[in-house]
Amino acid sequence: MQFDFLNNYDFIFIILSFIYLLFFFNTLVNYKKKKYKKWYIKILLLRYLIFASLLLLLLNPILNFFSYINRDLKLGIFVDNSSSMKFHQQPTFMNFKSDLDNFFEKIKNKEIFYETFLFDRNVKSFDNINKLDGNGLTTNLSKVAKSIENNPNLHSALIITDGVATEGMNPIKSFEELKIPIFALGVGENSKMVDLSIQTIDVPTVSFINDNINLRSVVKSEGIYNKSATISLYQENDLIVSKDIFLNNTEALNEVDFLFKPKKIGNQKFEIRVSSFEDELNIQNNRQAFNILILKNKYKVALFTGTPNNNTYLIRENLKKNSRIEFDHYVKVTDSDFKPSINSFWGTSYELIIFENFPIKNQSFDFVRILGKKIIANNSAIFLIIGPNQKNESLKSISALLDFELNNNQKDKHLFNWSFKRTENFSSLPPISGPISIRTKNKNVDTLAFFENEDLLWFRNEKNKIRSVLFLSPELLKLKSKFLDYNPKPSDLILDNSITWLLQLSGSKESYFRLNKKRLRLGEVVNIAGNSLTGLPDVNESLIIKLSHNGNEIDIKEFDFNIDLKRWELEYRPPSSGLYDYKILFESEKNEIQIGEFEVLESKIELSNVYMNELLLKSISASSSADFSSWTMKDTLLLKLKPKSKKEIDSKFAKFNENIFVFITIVFLFCFEVFYRKNKGLL
Questions:
Q1: pTM for the full model?
Q2: Domain span including residue 524
């Protein structure tokens, strides 16, 4: 038993009690000498008892009562509920469930306290054998290790599994630091099932019509020796090319290379197929589809210049370096004449029209009307780069064409500070002039750079399938000369990204973000990575992906920014099969940076490895000085399982201020003191 105070003022009680007792004993010593009355001594004693009781209540004392008890510790039993468990022949899943139920009874008969868990991707408790259904998508043994680590009531653990880990950290490392024995029961056959599967496909996501595409596929063979198989490439259902591969090992990776030329423009669907064997259980992994965006190999660009200036050479050189671009340069020589003749422009179809320092003067109504018809007819994109000779007045004629309105205030030629919206990729950006001030009614305009007064500098727009980009400063050359040591330079970044975006006329968004695969098996992870439009993104702004499954929005995930690789990264594991749509955008904005889709097949990753990984399970048990047994020898392992208990201190306490008898005693003492004083005539 232990007496203590909940409040840390016990020293006050001791001091006051000591002083009072000194006074009381001094009175007793001098009882006869000073001729104290007997009633005086009794009242002093009563008052001391009342005082001490009240002080004790204020200090909140407690009485602790200790005893020792034996607490039974538990055996943690973790049963694999992943889908691979259903495909073993020895034992079958039905026999396994029946035997497992009997096994639990034998453990109970040994008076071993135990707790049961199911695991696949996650770990959860279960108390009914019928909850074991083998529907788990993946096997994460590292989650089992974490669950054991976080459970202090376990004296040992028993893992019942085939040992095929398809997710999570290295299982051996996960179990190495556990301080309790880890027993393992291996389920299934030691030898791998006969299986031929497509592991990876390495192919560009974007290519050009009639260009050679190199494709490399890795085919994994298991349980197959000295046999041949055929691997084929299809576009839709049309065979493009096929090759025979010789399988000369029971477990091997076979690389197969294809070279082919796409014949159609747009988002083309392809599929790799490999032949199957008669005794192959899982044939869903024998094919894998993928998409390639096929673009035109040449783009026609028209460059209009009002008066040649410092930007003209810069823009021409940028267009020349792109082997996919053929451009015609029209220079205004008089109010009505161009060099070369404008007639060739009207007769040629252009994917992109660039206005550079053009128009300097208002263009005629007929010119703008015919130009608008041509843009719509050819689905042309427009790039407006403000030049040194342009003012508000000169842009009025084409403002409607580009879906903007001119602000009334004409800017002077002072220099203004500015910045890219989502990056600080460049240090000490020089101030630049921005003589043109505009506004747009389109809420979906994507602003890429802006002046310090929040005027637009660089933005892009898409309306009625017509894309346009505007850069509202004539000082592109300054952004090159001030950053000679940078790669890319701000001027190149603005030109390259604008032109790249404008020339993507197939209906797809920019391919800045890439998926590791567009078609995957249930249980696999989709990896998405990409860079922002203007270089390094602002890491303080959240980049998100909105996911829809079969047309219904189901999830929103946030990207992480990898500083070392300077890119956004995201891992997503689809919960079910079907078609998924995605939109990538900044959380504060409405415009998508990229949209797309991917497909999840019913084929489960678990079924690509159906065998018992005996080596792994033996390693896990050995790391904790425990034992491994196969399921057929489970009774042998049962002999090594023992009950275990732990001696613990059982503590019970009682608080003075919660005891009714303490209050009754104080009241009684107080009343008795009053009564005694009244009886003695002291009141």
A1: 0.50
A2: 513-607
